[in-house]
Design goal:
Blueprint lengths: L2 E4 L2 E8 L4 E5 L10 H7 L4 E5 L17 H14 L6 E5 L1 H12 L6 E5 L9 H13 L1 H7 L1 H16 L7 H10 L5 H12 L15 E6 L4 H4 L1 H8 L3 E6 L6 H4 L1 H15 L11
Parallel strand pairs: 3-4, 3-5, 5-6, 6-7, 7-8
Antiparallel strand pairs: 1-2, 2-4
Helix pairs in contact: 1-12, 2-3, 4-8, 5-6
Length: about 280
């Protein structure tokens, strides 16, 4: 089982290909397999690395408490260094996008490009967004202790669909299959991960320090309180562009993988072209 030491934990990763490096950072309560459609599509042209964030999947938990997005970003730095990846493109979704933007702002000379998908900045747009992003997330911990996170999340998806429309849940059956196939989080790890995401608004991120080209992707049916961050990224990151993923909710890479992968491939061709895209192989 391939692992790399990152700040006291053995981080599991899957590496494929020999081209320019591309690192995928998954969303909360998932694992590296969230990125299977993109890895399979791009793994011949790029060196793809998909890993399990601390607390998740085959990486599992640790004695550190509490967790924070800053800690996850430092783990990402250790992974990039440990695998000797030369200025990779970092692609993160939801929680993974939070990690990716902290990494990019903290180490702007250690990546070649940035993709932020279905994610949000630390900025809170008022009490309603605080309720969605912080209070409700924290409130899931007690029922998860009793019922398990699968049941609680299904109820959360139902609630989001009532509030924001049926499309917000995307192809939720794909998420359920991924969860069923992979290692499950323990309840203590779930609590630490959820609280880290819920506290992201307390993190200081200088978006203006992100000096690399940045692609911001969000699902057409993304909840408004997440979607409103796309123009924030576009206005505060010096070289950022936005693209809407049609027929997709909060996991746009799974809801519409063909569109998402094509957009990612086009972005990569500009910022980190594979040999086959620049005049053929040598």
């Amino acid at each position: 089982m391939p692992t790399v030491q990152t700040n006291g934990v053995e981080t599991y990763y899957e590496r494929r290909g020999n081209g320019p490096p591309l690192v995928f950072v998954h969303g909360a309560i998932l694992d590296h397999s969230q990125w299977t459609p993109q890895v399979e599509a791009l793994g011949e042209e790029y060196t793809t690395v998909a890993y399990d964030v601390r607390g998740h999947g085959r990486t599992g938990g640790s004695d550190r408490s509490p967790y924070a997005i800053d800690l996850f970003a430092d783990d990402l730095r250790a992974l990039v260094e440990g695998l000797d990846l030369d200025r990779p493109v970092i692609c993160g979704l939801s929680m993974g996008g939070c990690i990716a933007q902290v990494y990019a702002a903290s180490y702007p000379d250690r990546l070649r490009g940035l993709v932020l998908a279905d994610t949000f900045s630390p900025d809170l747009g008022g009490w309603r967004e605080w309720l969605q992003r912080s209070a409700v997330l924290r409130a899931t911990v007690p029922p998860v202790r009793l019922l398990g996170y699968e049941r609680v999340e299904k109820a959360m998806v139902w609630l989001q669909q009532r509030l924001h429309g049926e499309g917000v849940g995307g192809d939720y059956e794909k998420i359920e299959r991924l969860r069923a196939e992979g290692p499950k989080l323990t309840t203590p790890e779930f609590a630490k991960v959820v609280r880290a995401v819920a506290a992201f608004h307390e993190t200081t991120v200088d978006l203006a320090a992100i000096s690399v080209p940045t692609l911001v992707l969000y699902g057409e049916d993304e909840p408004a309180f997440v979607r409103r961050h796309a123009p924030i990224f576009e206005s505060e990151i010096p070289d950022a562009s936005i693209l809407q993923v049609p027929h997709a909710g909060h996991a746009s890479n799974l809801d519409n993988p063909a569109f998402f992968t094509a957009a990612l491939r086009e972005f990569l061709a500009e910022v980190s072209p594979a040999e086959s895209t620049v005049g053929g192989t040598e």
